[in-house]
Amino acid sequence: MRERERHHDDLPRPQSPMPAAAADSGDLREAAERLLAQGADAIDRALSGNSAAFLAANRQEGGQ
Amino acid sequence: MTTKHSGSESGSLSLLPKLCGADIELGNFVLGLERPNGTGELASRALLREIHARYAQSDSLEPFHRSYNPQDWGRKFLSSNGGCAYIDLDHLELCIPEVISAYDHVAAWHAMLRIARGALQAANARLRDGLSIQVLVNNSDGRGNAYGSHLNFLVGRRAWDNLFERKVHHLLYLAAFQVSSIVFTGQGKVGAENGAPPVAFQLSQRADFFETLTGTQTTFRRPIVNARDEPLCGRGRTIPTAGAPTAGAPTAGARLHCIFFDNTLCHVASLLKVGVMQLILTLLEAERVNSELMLDDPVDAVWRWSHDPTLRARARMVSGHRLTAVELQLLFLEQAQCFAAQGGYDGIVPRAGEILALWEDTLLKLKADDVSALASRLDWVLKFRILQRALHKRSDLTWASPEIKHLDHLYSSLDPAHGLYWAYEKLGVTEQVLPEARIEHFVHEPPEDTRAWTRAMLLRMGGEAVHDVDWDLIKFRQTGRGYWPVVRTLHLADPLGFTRAASQPVIEKATSLGEILDTLQASEPDIDATPTLYDHTSLRAWVRSPVATLRLGSAQASGNGGGSGWGRFSEHSEPDARDQTRKTTTYPKGGERT
User: Fold this and answer.
1) What are phi and psi of B572, to 5 degrees?
2) Nearest 5°: phi and psi at A52?
3) Distance between terminal CA atoms of chain B?
4) Is the distance from CB of B88 to CB of B150 less than 8 angstroms?
């Protein structure tokens, strides 16, 4: 198992999406808000769809 | 089977690495097409056909020799990564290959979603204009129907027996952990279902559907802690290790089938969902249970906490104290940190220290109500923020508007053109816990440190000779003496065995599939001769045998009931012919609730 841990530890780690300077500081909140705001287009696209038709078609009877 | 020993009042206990699997049940339907009973059947079959063609080396939907089972239809294991895909009650269901690391679990989970996405795009390309298959990685259609997201963990048999047959405080401890964990495992949902009190937004997709503390059922009166006993790693008191040269004292294994959690997309939420469960299950296995951490009424608590996104709701403990979900989680964290300080997780939970640190940081941010930071980590927070922005943008909308429920669903749409999660991931909003290459790796390759590696390799090599596959066995047709084919069975009972390190030398050295099976100790042929004409007993046995299937056709020969998997136990499955001790559950026709 220790071998397994070493194996995983060798993998490159992804970088945080937040700016390095913002990490662990009050700027983190602002950075997150800026990024969230950039998703406005995605929300607009979703809202432009036919919600009634989508909800009517989405019927998932049965399931665990 | 590698084990570790931990002291307890009752002597030394064996701890097992917390190998884990998952089945991802998806919402699927055809937009633009109306059918009296919905379009799930059409959508799921179109998707499964594409997956079979691309990843199972077959585009046939014909399952192996199994009887019809609506909860396990068309299952095929993937030669690409060792996982599998099938249809469960008209839902496409994806099972990841067994992994040990929670980080690999996240990678394999997203890899299976990529496989499904490829199938979605291919299937949609075949549809006429105006029609499109929609796939949602959620757990509820908003109309009272839920579908599962099951996790499966290897635990010692003793730990399983303690939970369900000997120590009720162990059961309540696990229930209290799971219920309070929705603060980081919930996907979030608009509205309430299943008779729960109305609410604008709640943390969990599944909370409204839990009606009892424990039970074996999964489609009605769903239990918080599922008691299915289908180990898929042997049933004896030890795990067979044939062909798997693992060290350490053998111990009996069991599979905890957890139906509690939501489908998650955020990496951190997915990592914590699995990784923290590994930590808690290790505590249970080591019998380090703090009996103070028991809820008076877990079913009430899961509804209460899920319906309060402010996280201020309190639930009563057996002790009489009233705690928030975050406060209770911090107590679990404290106990896990103490165990870690004693080296308790070494060799059992990979990267336990990192999981603990991320768990603590996330809980502290939840306690501080730092929702902006948490939107990068937790699905329910990200979804909540997205919906709040939509409401701010469109003053004509309310939480009850169809558009908001539509957005709720689209958050988890698998289609990158519509799925809000993917849009935010692309923007860099979400925190990634593993390299992109690791996800892509598991689209095409199996984990190397579990039996999934050997399964995938033998599926690639076996081709048409593969006769049947399940999590713990593969059957191959081979030429026997004379004319008749024979079926040989390779049992993969040890989920931690048959790793790449164990099997690759065997495969490389062998000159034929038969030689590999010999070395890995495949069992003798199931049958290699036709029965005597007037021996009715042997004739009946022969008619039921796989070989008869080849000669008589599947309509006359009935294969095993199948239906089970590391990912899944089927309520309709018949007792497996090779293991009559497996438990099954039946219920009256029409009596199930969804």
Assistant:
1) -100, 0
2) -65, -45
3) 39
4) no
- Interface-testing mutation among A16, A51, A60, with chain B (most B C-beta atoms within 10 A): A60
Contact B414, B120 (CB under 8 A): yes
A26 vs B: CB within 8 A:
no
Chain A hits for B423, Cβ within 8 Å: 39, 41-42
Q: String of b and e for B137-152 (b: at least 16 CB within 10 Å)?
A: bbbbbbeebbbbbbbb
> What is the distance between the terminal CA atoms of chain A, rounded to a whole angstrom?
34
Q: What structural domains and CATH numbers belong to chain B?
A: 1-21+141-231+252-435 (3.30.590), 452-537 (no CATH)
- Of B553, B542, B566, residue with least CA distance to B487: B542
**Bridge partners, B253 (sequence order):** B156
Q: How buried is residue B120: exposed, middle or buried, by Cβ count under 10 Å (0-12/13-18/19+)? A: buried
What's the pTM? 0.85
Determine contact: B455 vs chain A, CB below 8 A: no
Determine contact: B353 vs chain A, CB below 8 A: no
| Nearest-by-Cβ selection for B594 from A43, A55, A62 | A62
B138-153 average pLDDT score: 96
Contact A8 B350 (CB under 8 A): yes
Contacts of B250 (CB under 8 A, 6+ apart): B1, B3, B238, B239, B241
Is there a contact between B149 and B260 (Cβ–Cβ < 8 Å)? no
Instruction: Compute, in degrees rounded to 10, the torsion defined by CA atoms B27, B28, B33, B35.
Output: -70
Rounded percentage of chain B residues whose pLDDT exceeds 70: 82
Share of chain B above pLDDT 90, in %: 75
Q: How far apart are CA B151 and CA B115, in angstroms?
A: 19
A36 in B contact zone (CB under 8 Å): yes
Residues near B417 by beta carbon (within 8 Å), at least 6 away in sequence:
none
Residues B178-230 have pLDDT tens digits of 999 999 999 999 999 999 999 999 999 999 999 999 999 999 999 999 999 99
| Per-residue pLDDT at B479 | 80
Q: Under DSSP, is residue B128 helix (H, G, I), strand (E, B) or coil? A: coil
In sequence order, the β-bridge partners of residue B5 are: B14
Q: How many CB atoms lie within 10 A of CB B436?
A: 11
Chain A, chain B: beta-carbon pairs less than 8 Å apart? 191
Which residues are registered as beta bridge partners of B91? Answer: B88
Element (H, E) at B84: strand B84-88
Task: Name the nearest CA neighbour of B499 among B441, B453, B457, B462.
Answer: B453
